[in-house]
Amino acid sequence: MSVRELVVLGTASQVPTRHRNHNGYLLRWDGEGILFDPGEGTQRQMLRAGAAAHDLNRICVTHFHGDHCLGLAGVIQRINLDQVPHEITAHYPRSGQRFFDRLRYATAYRETVGLTEAPVDTDGPLAVTPSYTLEARKLSHPVESYGYRLTEPDGRRMLPDRLAAHGIKGPDVGRIQREGALGGVALEEVSEVRRGQRFAFVMDTRLCDGVHALAEGCDMLVIESTFLDEDTGLAVEHGHLTAGQAAAVARDAGVRHLVLTHFSQRYTEQDEFERQARAAGFEGELTVAHDLLRVPVPKRR
């Protein structure tokens, strides 16, 4: 049975707190695991969340500020220590190659696993698999930063009443799905398009075209809301979003499930993030993330 869920490993921004670890997000997508922005302490948070190095297939780093990448060294070494039997691909801004190199080889260890480096330097697709297309979009932050988006290919949903009208049943249903036609009946006559799921991950950024492009039509949007709306000036100055801004993006993009995260240490209570997101007009499912939370990706429409 396929599993699609977000495992939240950490929700702090620059400074961790007693209750918030630095960033870390594991997306389980069918049989794959994509680790986003492994900040300091990610390896231990994975242990607490029941996630193993063997679960990882990709690592996606948005940018090279420490709270989004200092956990890379430990995660990469754990991948090798556990001798993960499959290749793992790492995506990150090409402009930060020197930082990736330093983190990958921060200390001595025995390399046992193929780690493919796939740096990002432009908008567009990064990988195409049977389950998804992974793409990147440039964001607006003091250092180069990219957001990521997964798009599942559209499929087809069989329509029982139309199948019955054409006398198609049992093994013939699978046959028409595989072959595209059966006895003069085209697949399109007995089915409809089933829209593929969409997931986006947006971290440190001001409002920009990339944010809106990543969020458009998403079933789940994981997005930073470092500040509350009364601190909009700080958000703009430091290259971040407020809760209201993030929610307005989700509202306009038709997002089904909004996950707010990456909170400044200046805020000790999270209720106000939800209140401001609702005040911005977002009416879909809303989660104000906390560490070790599991959030299922919404079922297909």
What would you say this structure looks like, in words?
With 301 residues, the protein is an alpha/beta fold. It is 25% helix and 26% strand. The strands form four sheets. The chain has a seven-stranded mixed beta sheet. A seven-stranded mixed beta sheet has the order 7-8-9-14-15-16-17. Strands 10-13 form a two-stranded antiparallel ribbon. The chain is globular. 44% of the residues are buried. The mean pLDDT is 96.
In short:
With 301 residues, this protein is α/β, with parallel strands linked by helices. The protein is globular. The chain has helices spanning 42-49, 72-81, 97-104, 160-165, 171-179, 209-215, 232-238, 243-253, 271-279; strands at residues 4-10, 24-29, 32-36, 58-60, 88-91, 115-117, 124-128, 133-138, 146-151, 155-158, 181-182, 185-186, 191-194, 198-202, 220-224, 257-261, 285-288, 294-296.
